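Collaborator request, handled under Task 6.
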Amino acid sequence: MVFEPNYKKPGDLIKSDDWNKIQDELVELRKFVESMTRSVTLTGLESPVGTSYSLTKEASEDFDYGIDVLGLITKQYYLGRKETGDVCRFGIHDYADTIYYWSGAAHGDRDALKITLEYVDGTTFTSDTMFIHEWSKLRPRGNKNPYVEYLQSPNQHLWYKYGIENSSPEKVIRYITFEDVDADSAVRIADVLQYVTRVKQLTRLK
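Structure tokens returned to the collaborator:
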């Protein structure tokens, strides 16, 4: 149904019921606009730190998914067993309220991952150490860093999709860095990110 405005002339009166209806509709419109979001998916991501490997051909036994592509995932980043440090760093250069990433760990089911967000203003945010599920067999979501969904390869190995909330959604994120902090596990990160942000309202020009 096409909206047809009903214009009033200067000095015309408006019924209180009509006025109140307009106010209610404006409130609902504002709620709708404030709840609008946009979602961005980044694939084939490259990192200036760490090393990328295929999902099967170049992968060691602890990282072999038995297939070249799984969903949107084509590469994985990981450190060797008994190693800790930065696994990879991806550029975002955008606002984000929530960032989703794919991970999993050999000898997982433990607190093994930290994430650092670097903003364009030079400030950073580092998460608490995050729980990462075991990759070799599907685990229940649990209460510690529950995953959103999972992908299972033909050889029954898992990628889990996790989300992290941005503590400063009003800032533009330059980089996101994934750090393996547990030498007893082997965390892997996929070359795919998804982030969701609320649509920013245009400020009135002065």
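The cover message to the collaborator said: "The mean pLDDT is 89. Residues 16-35 form the longest helix (20 residues). Please let us know whether this matches your experimental observations."
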